[in-house]
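@channel sequence for tomorrow's demo:
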Amino acid sequence: MENYTNNKKSFKIIKEHLNILYIEDEKNIRIKLKEALELIVSSVYDCENTEQAKHILNNKRIDIIISDINLKDENALEFIKNIRKNYVTIPIILLSAYTEKNYLLEATKLKLVDYLVKPIDFKILNNAIENAAQELIDYGNYIVDFENNTSYNVLHKKLLSKDSNKELTLTAKEIELLEYLISNSNRVLSHDEIKNKLWIDAYEITDSALKNLINKLRKKVGKESIKNISGVGFKIELS
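structure tokens (generated this afternoon):
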């Protein structure tokens, strides 16, 4: 039961903080689907061709690729074949107006999460994103990056220093605090919210004890990664 609960929590964190690369050369379609995707995930990097897509892949952390199959500069199937050489496990979803057998057969060779036929139904799109998130969990690949060159593996609950390539030990309370901050990275968490989440009897925990825990975690993820909003609370900054 404990493993199930932890995996369920990891899944929620992963889904809410996914970065998606979305490639579509039809502007109106791209705008509408991007708006739908932003209701599901944290960030959507959209572009109209594969050259722009390659630039984004080289400069941003991308968790999932969603692409139309017919692009003006390059067929998406060829693009994905090349991407697979360097990104073997990245989940990929293809979109198309086609249901022809030859497209489907070619697409299945690329180990896709899904092949969705336009127009895209929101529930089907959401299910495809959830399947992609599950793949990230299965491969143990989902990483949250911080400004001080550390990264946190949500599934394995490990903090790694990229500079030394060594694991930074986290206590159970530090993990609980870190994941609560990550799950609420879009807002400031008050002292009381954090106390109520981390301790059964929040009234027994002093502000100094909470501050001490925050400071210990800051030393590991970077001082600037956890902002102290004076008189309000704390907010995490992700890279």
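heads up for whoever presents: The domain at 170-236 is CATH 1.10.10.10 (Arc Repressor Mutant, subunit A).
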